[in-house]
Design goal:
mainly alpha; 6 helices; elongated
Length: about 100
């Protein structure tokens, strides 16, 4: 079984789509808010939707980049299905968090 056959599954795409935003959030937090402890960052996010904007949108960017490669370059169609499904669910969560 080739690498493409092993990875071209919706479950694999969905799992990676869950992992990448977490890594993106941790990277973004360390890049911009390294001096703030987690509880202070949480209060900052709860204070206003404007504060949440960059913190919840930026972590989805790695999924967009991976979508480009998995769909247009590598043609992993089933992987892309899982990736898109989970990314849409996460994006809906972002929209709800910005509205509330």
């Amino acid at each position: 079984m080739s690498f493409k056959q092993k990875i071209d599954k919706p479950l694999v795409g969905g799992l990676i789509a869950l992992i990448l935003p977490v890594l993106g959030f941790l990277f973004f937090k360390e890049l911009n808010y390294a001096n703030k402890p987690w509880d202070q960052l949480w209060r900052f996010m709860k204070a206003s939707a404007n504060n949440r904007n960059e913190l919840v949108i930026f972590p989805l960017i790695p999924n967009l980049v991976l979508f480009y490669f998995s769909n247009y370059q590598w043609r992993w169609d089933k992987f892309t299905q899982g990736l898109v499904f989970v990314t849409v669910l996460l994006a809906l969560g972002v929209v709800v968090s910005l509205v509330v």
